[in-house]
Design a protein that fits this description.
Number of strands: 6
Strand content: under 5%
Order of helices and strands: HHHHEHHHHHHHEHHHEHEHEHEHHHHHHH
Helix content: 25-40%
Shape: globular
Mean pLDDT: 92
Radius of gyration: 24 Å
Low-confidence stretches: 1-29, 306-313
Strand order of the largest sheet: 1-3
Length: 620
């Protein structure tokens, strides 16, 4: 296998990225760098530009990892998950109260909406700096310049794809900002996406197919191009981009056992696909673009600092975020405390599964609603891929010999119907263990260690092409692509009559939990329903009324049992969400700081009354 990209020479640019991320709290695009690491001193040769690209990669990685990872915010605005923290007010549950332009929008105890805005523009600033400085790098050949430029275009397009589907019309700088700038304007979403399409069409000509894992390759550019083509409603172009990756000989779905646990007959291909050591393995022909994180490396150190640490190893913290809070509050039928938070017990549940806190709590839709075939390995508890609370046992050593429940399976109800777990929101739900189990050698009990992570995987490429076929009305081709994913997991095939956009979204939820940016993708589809006039459950939408009627909201209310029922937590907070939450609010601090221009606020939020027509062209 090729070495993981970006060695120690990336440290200067990573340091620059840290300073930028810190400074963006006050000035979201104003560059602040130590003089030693100014672009004119580092962006002079291939090594310097590769280091700058490494900073772009690190900026992407932070979304998936750390305590209160930004990915949680993407998921709790969808049908798959909600925020499970219920011992305090503040976490994003009542969106009508918590999600406002002037609210706390970037805090692990609240939500990370503001992180997506700030981190995207940091990534755009870094990419723009590379793009603007590259022509003046006389020591670099034209061939290498085209490769570097294509990779920088990829990172910029990635962030604008996310921004335009999270916030809609947004400012669109495409050149390096070298001094304080306070005259940004809002640009139309489709204008931005069209520019990103053009850039990626350049990138796919020059970025190599083969690269070090963690680096951008041509398949990643085509995969992102397929998404942007979909967002623009260019379905034939999306099919062409996805097909180019699928038909390229180097990429194939993994269907045979491989990697570190291949000899373990109790496991299966689904388990193998998500082992930390397998994600960037040369044996893995499904990985298209990963973010990389290894213990005792520069990226782990820097990521810890970005996560609010001091440079120590914090790890992914994925088990802490996504598993139920099974270390307390679960009583035996006799009324004794049946669990505890101690690792090293005779029955060591904390080390077998990790200590979760139920922060990202999946819904009944994700636990039961999407699973239509008992043979599906992704939902199989016999092999241990999927774990239910009742698969675990009472393990508190203080009840051994005193309570007959010790060592027996956890129960939700006692013999008389008494609820043994009074907080079912946070403490009683199932999870995809095969994906969330990341061995942790730094925290006891385990919380989730270091691991590379999929950003783009060939399974999603198939599902993107299936969606494009479905928009065109070609249900036969859509079913064929979805069945590639289903059959690999052991599930039976769909027929053309089974297919719809909703069916494809169900398959994405099965396959891409904690990989896809679920809110981003639902929003993209919401824009498409409005643009095409096609119906969902017999209802049609228009672009003029998206703030009050849209597919995203209808889908969430149809499938998410918490928002649908107005569930109230034990702390007294209600789960509420509204149609205008289709788009997140632009942070008020950003609008106020832009004193010489005008950045629009999204409809439904305070400040939108002063909106002006967004620009139909990009002007730097």
């Amino acid at each position: 296998m090729k070495k993981i990209a970006y060695k120690i020479f990336l440290l200067p640019v990573i340091a620059l990225t840290i300073m930028t991320l810190s400074s963006c709290k006050k000035s979201w695009l104003e560059p602040k760098a130590p003089s030693t690491y100014l672009p004119e001193n580092t962006l002079v040769d291939v090594a310097g530009f590769n280091a700058a690209l490494a900073g772009c990669a690190l900026n992407l990685r932070t979304e998936f990892f750390g305590d209160g990872a930004p990915m949680i915010t993407e998921m709790i605005f969808t049908e798959v998950s909600v925020e499970g923290t219920d011992d305090k007010t503040g976490p994003a549950q009542n969106m009508n109260l918590q999600i406002r332009p002037d609210a706390q929008l970037n805090n692990v105890d609240f939500n990370r909406v503001g992180w997506f805005w700030s981190a995207a523009y940091v990534g755009i600033k870094n990419a723009n700096t590379i793009i603007s400085r590259l022509p003046g790098a006389s020591a670099i050949s034209d061939a290498n310049k085209n490769i570097i430029l294509g990779k920088a275009y990829f990172y910029r397009a990635y962030h604008y794809y996310r921004l335009t589907n999270q916030f809609g019309d947004v400012p669109c700088p495409t050149k390096e900002v070298t001094s304080a700038k306070t005259d940004f304007v809002t640009v139309k979403r489709e204008v931005i996406l069209q520019k990103m399409k053009t850039d990626l069409e350049f990138a796919v000509q020059y970025v190599p197919w083969t690269s070090d894992r963690g680096d951008v390759n041509r398949a990643a550019c085509y995969h992102l191009l397929a998404k942007i083509n979909l967002a623009l409603g260019l379905f034939d172009d999306a099919i062409t981009a996805a097909s180019t990756v699928i038909n390229q000989g180097s990429y194939k779905l993994m269907t045979s056992r491989f990697g570190v646990d291949a000899a373990n007959g109790a496991r299966n291909i689904i388990w193998d696909l998500h082992r930390p050591d397998n994600k960037s393995s040369s044996l893995n022909t499904e990985a298209i673009f990963n973010v990389t994180s290894r213990a005792n490396t520069a990226s782990a150190f820097i990521s810890s600092m970005l996560d609010g640490g001091t440079g120590g190893t914090l790890g992914s913290r994925i088990m802490r975020q996504t598993l139920p809070f099974i270390s307390g509050g679960l009583n035996t039928p006799a009324g004794n405390a049946g669990v505890n938070a101690v690792a090293g017990n005779e029955i060591d549940i904390m080390q077998l599964y990790g200590r979760g806190i139920g922060r990202c709590r999946n819904t009944s839709y994700h636990q039961w609603g999407i699973w239509d075939d008992p043979k599906d390995l992704r939902h199989d508890s016999t092999s241990g891929n999927w774990v239910w609370p009742q698969n675990l046992v009472y393990f508190n050593p203080s009840i051994k010999g005193k309570d007959t429940a010790y060592g027996l399976r956890l129960r939700l109800f006692g013999p008389t119907g008494t609820l043994l777990c009074p907080d079912t929101l946070r403490r009683w739900f199932s999870w995809p263990h095969y994906k969330m189990y990341i061995p942790d050698f730094d925290n006891t009990p385990m919380q989730g260690g270091q691991s590379d992570w999929y950003v783009f995987r060939l399974a999603e490429t198939y599902l993107l092409r299936a969606e494009a076929y479905m928009w065109k009305g070609d249900a036969v081709s859509a079913a064929a692509d979805v069945n590639k994913i289903r059959n690999r997991a052991g599930a039976s095939s769909y027929t053309a009559a089974d297919m719809s956009i909703g069916t494809i979204l169900d398959e994405r939820a099965r396959e891409l939990y904690w990989e896809e940016p679920r809110k981003t993708e639902l929003n993209r589809i919401a824009f498409l329903f409005a643009k095409t006039g096609l119906s969902y459950n017999g209802k049609t939408y228009t672009t003029a009324n998206l703030a009050t009627s849209n597919f995203w909201y209808d889908r969430v209310m149809e499938k998410n049992n918490f928002y649908k029922s107005g569930f109230v937590t034990v702390h007294g907070d209600q789960f509420l969400i509204s149609p205008y939450h289709l788009l997140w609010p632009v942070p008020q601090s950003v609008i106020l700081a832009n004193t010489d221009g005008h950045i629009n606020q999204n409809l439904g939020y305070s400040g939108s009354a002063t909106n002006v027509a967004p620009s139909d062209k990009i002007v730097d």
